[in-house]
Write a structure and sequence with these properties.
Layout lengths: L4 H26 L3 H11 L12 E2 L2 E2 L4 H20 L10 H19 L7 H38 L5
Antiparallel strand pairs: 1-2
Helix pairs in contact: 1-2, 1-3, 3-5, 4-5
Length: about 160
């Protein structure tokens, strides 16, 4: 995998901002900014059902996403921050879809077994399965992002004629 610190900073910054936004609605409500809180929740509505009964709360207000999504986004971002240490292991150079499936399996089982009545999931099981899935998604996404970023950057440099020989 080709590595680009600028690409890494862009992706981790975007992920950190997205993850920080999970707490924004609760903070806005607690501060009396109800309109801002509603707008924040609307921003996350396309990616999560936002069921209040299935969401963690902060300052007695629900986060912008459910337990499972909170786990996914937090783990994704934390894994990105840890990746410079993890990338030394060749295991993480190219993360294939079958490897990703291993990380998604707990999330899928937690959901399907609950729907089938075999298992009753809980806030903890939803959050933990989300944490596992988020880590796998980060390990899958970052190498692909780096390939995209370095190819885009190299192409931009070539088109601008800034290549020194």
């Amino acid at each position: 995998m080709r590595w680009s610190w600028s690409g890494y900073v862009v992706l981790t910054t975007l992920a950190a901002l997205w993850t920080a936004g999970l707490f924004a609605a609760s903070a806005a409500h607690a501060g009396g900014y109800d309109e801002a809180a509603i707008l924040t929740r609307l921003f996350y509505a396309p990616v999560c059902h936002q069921d209040i009964a299935r969401s963690f709360s902060l300052w007695n207000w629900p986060l912008s996403v459910c337990h499972r999504c909170s786990g996914i986004y937090l783990s994704f971002t934390l894994t990105l921050f840890a990746f410079p240490m993890l990338r030394r292991w060749r295991l993480f150079d190219s993360f294939s879809l079958p490897r990703l499936a291993i990380f998604i399996l707990p999330l899928l089982l937690d959901y399907v077994l609950d729907v089938l009545g075999v298992w009753q999931n809980s806030p903890s099981s939803r959050a933990i399965s989300g944490l596992v899935a988020g880590a796998g998604l980060a390990l899958f996404t970052l190498p692909a992002w780096m390939e995209f970023w370095t190819a885009w950057r190299d192409r931009s440099i070539l088109q601008s004629g800034e290549v020194c020989e």
